[in-house]
Amino acid sequence: MPTICELLGIEYPIFQGAMARIATHKIAGAVSEAGGLGILGSGGWSADQLREEIRLTREITKKPFAVNLMLQMPNCDELAQVILDEKVKIVTTGAGSPKKYIPAFKEAGVKVIPVIASVRHAIKMQAAGVDAVVAEGQEAGGHIGQTSTMSLLPQIVDAVDIPVLGAGGVGDGRSLAAIYALGAQGVQVGTLFLSAEECPIPDSYKERLINAIDTDTIVTGRKAKDPVRSLKNPMLLKFAELEEANAPHEELEKLTLGSLSRAVYDGDMETGSAMAGEIAGMIKNIRPAKQIIEELFNEAEKKAASLKISY
Questions:
Q1: Residue 288: pLDDT above 70?
Q2: Do 75 and 124 sit in the same domain of this protein?
Q3: Are residues 222 and 196 in the same domain?
Q4: Which domain holds residue 81?
Q5: For residue 57, with 0-12 CB atoms within 10 Å meaning exposed, 13-18 middle and 19 or more buried, which class applies?
Q6: 235-243 long-range contacts, Cβ below 8 Å, gap at least 24?
């Protein structure tokens, strides 16, 4: 089995999470140029927007990068065609099965890597012919599954014969070393890259992240079977209260309508949905993406070398 770096032509086995409305050419290009895999988050974009983002990314880097397809989006067919037209060679997917797109992607030499949250889904994706999977635990920010990375990752590694990357709960070199100990070939990181200098979110979002503590995230939407992890704020605490009281869907939807845009574009940390993972409390400074990657792997190597297990 080739390593994920050999498979994709990247230097570091690290993917940048495809954070909705955030993962533009600015952060994706910086991560790829630094040796990782930058990923454009196409959710909510038109075909023309995706085409422009791909071209802008290529102005920043000549190295490999990927596009993420959120398979719930109604214009997925158009976005997939843009990926083929623009000759992007790596696609990650979320929120569904990419099976219908795999034949066309394979014919064009595109590597397909779904983000999954269960062993059952991993097995199905291997059977469908994907090249690797990202096993994401519920510690992650944004839309999550129900199993923690510590439990999920080794079960998926044991269940499939393709490269597996771990996601969720990686905030420093210690947690990266743990991901490797659980059998992964690499890691996908989202929340940590929110603190990158190149990440195009408002300063208020980054400041909220830096000031977060270990208990500062909240999961909403579990009752609707669409759980999302974000940084706590008055709006989300109100949502959780209404959700617990079995408020009508319309009332909950009214509360959150436009909340992601309010956080990402307006920097509204009171009524916006500022998605972030449980590692938010570990982030204490703003650094270039290149420095984040290099320090992450240097620390992981030192930690792995220092481990002495006795019994």
A1: yes
A2: yes
A3: no
A4: 10-201+285-303
A5: buried
A6: 235/259, 235/270, 235/271, 235/272, 235/273, 236/273
Residue 308 lies in a domain: no
Q: Please indicate, yes or no, whether residues 84 and 215 belong to a single structural domain of this protein.
A: no
For residue 146, name the pLDDT band (cuts at 50, 70, 90). confident
SS3 category, 300:
helix
Between CA 171 and CA 292 the distance in angstroms is 10
The answer on 95 and 233 residing in a single domain is no
Is 4 a domain residue? no
> Could you tell me the pLDDT band of residue 310, with boundaries at 50, 70 and 90?
low
Alpha carbon separation from 245 to 12, 73, 287 (Å, rounded): 46, 30, 42
- Domain count along the chain: 2
pLDDT digits (tens, 9 = 90+) for 132-144: 999 999 999 888 8
The token pair that represents 226 in the structure block: 């669409």
What is the rounded average pLDDT of the residues 186-210? 95
Task: Give the DSSP per-residue string, 81-93.
Answer: HHHHHTT--EEEE
The helix, strand and coil proportions of the chain, stated in percent and rounded to the nearest 5, come to 45, 15, 40
Inform me whether the pLDDT recorded for 223 exceeds 90.
Answer: no
DSSP state for residue 210 in the 8-state scheme: H
The CATH number covering residue 100 comes to 3.20.20.70
Closest CA to 125 of 167, 117, 133: 133
> Are residues 24 and 125 located together in one domain of the fold?
yes
Mean pLDDT over all residues of the chain?
Answer: 93
User: In terms of domains, do 187 and 211 share one?
Assistant: no
